[in-house]
TrEMBL record:
The chain crosses the membrane at residues 32-52, 61-80, 86-104, 116-134, 140-162, 174-194, 266-283. Keywords: Membrane, Signal, Transmembrane, Transmembrane helix. Residues 1-22 form the signal peptide. This is Drug/Metabolite Transporter (DMT) Superfamily.
Length: 330
């Protein structure tokens, strides 16, 4: 990976963390959470219409992936409105455990001993605050229902991620074709739930437009999505998962240390354990980032050496053939 890609990832990381913090702080409990999902589907459909190669309705497989992502988005926005930011970020590494479990069960994933150790550290980091809350007399800090919602969100994301990988391998579609077909499914569903949520809140459209911080929350949401999209397009698959998860957990850590009054040392310990396990699991990707240039040079030297050996071998073969001809003539 080139150095400018690392710089882009760092800038994207900073933008995502700051915009995510702004979104979480500005969002109130009466905010219509389906509005960002609806506008994302609407804007995605319009944008992909200019770049898509095929304009097709989605098949059942892709529709299932879209439904999982919508359900994941609903859980995510519910978490933002009702659950502490640090609790959300604390359970972000659990997505990796669920994904590995699905690939191990239905795919051909082979884990090494150090990766099993990494998964154990992640699992320990996820379960530690729950066990501490159960043991503690004051259980208000982390209700079990909040932990279950975060785990359900992680499981939903893992299912969508695994299903998309299967869809990608079987159909190998163009990226903008996927976005166009997916938004066709997502737009009517998100529009239905958007109207339903407004009716349930007894909110008129005019009152909704005058909702406090509506523009800023929407702007922060798209800024966060844009920064994540840059990472999605610039880096490889393994390092992408590291960056995305670190973005999520860093939002919670910064919020808990600088803005929250309910910070607990056990939460910081769990955060460090979970992310240490995440880094250990993908240590090869981090190593390749900083040593990719050396590896490329070594491969280049190997190619040059092999070429020289082949050329010398061909030269020796030609000399041998000439000697045989002279001997036969004699």
């Amino acid at each position: 990976m080139k150095k400018y890609l690392i710089l882009v990832c760092i800038i994207s990381f900073a933008i995502s963390v700051s915009s995510g913090l702004a979104k979480n702080k500005l969002c109130t409990k009466d905010f219509i959470k389906m509005f960002p999902l609806f506008t994302t589907s609407f804007c995605g459909l319009i944008l992909s219409a200019f770049f898509a190669r095929k304009y097709e309705l989605p098949n059942r497989f892709l529709s299932g992936v879209v439904l999982l992502l919508i359900f994941y988005g609903i859980l995510l926005w519910y978490s933002i409105k009702n659950i502490k930011v640090f609790t959300i970020s604390l359970f972000a590494p659990s997505k990796l455990i669920f994904t590995c479990f699905l690939i191990k069960t239905f795919g051909s994933l082979k884990l090494k001993k150090i990766q099993y150790l990494a998964l154990f550290l992640i699992l320990l980091g996820v379960l530690l605050p729950i066990l501490w809350s159960i043991k503690s007399k004051n259980r208000v800090s982390m209700p079990i229902s909040h932990a279950l919602i975060c785990l359900a969100s992680g499981m939903c994301f893992a299912l969508a991620n695994f299903s998309y990988e299967v869809y990608q391998k079987n159909f190998n579609p163009y990226l903008w074709d996927i976005i166009f077909s997916g938004c066709i499914t997502a737009l009517p569903i998100t529009a239905f739930f958007f109207v339903l949520e407004m009716l349930k809140a007894h909110m008129s459209f005019q009152r909704f437009l005058h909702q406090p911080n509506l523009i800023w929350i929407t702007f922060a949401t798209y800024l966060e999505l844009g920064s994540k999209a840059i990472v999605l397009l610039m880096v490889n698959t393994i390092f992408r998962s590291i960056v995305m998860l670190l973005q999520s957990v860093s939002i919670g850590l910064v919020d808990s240390i600088f803005f929250s009054r309910e910070f607990r040392p056990i939460d910081l310990l769990a955060f460090l354990l979970a992310n240490l396990g995440l880094l250990i699991y993908d240590y090869r990707a981090l190593k390749n980032i900083f040593h990719s240039k050396k590896v490329a040079e070594d491969k280049k030297d190997d190619v040059i050496l092999k070429t020289q050996v082949c050329e010398n071998g061909d030269h020796q073969t030609k000399n041998t053939e000439k000697r045989l001809k002279l001997t036969s003539n004699i």
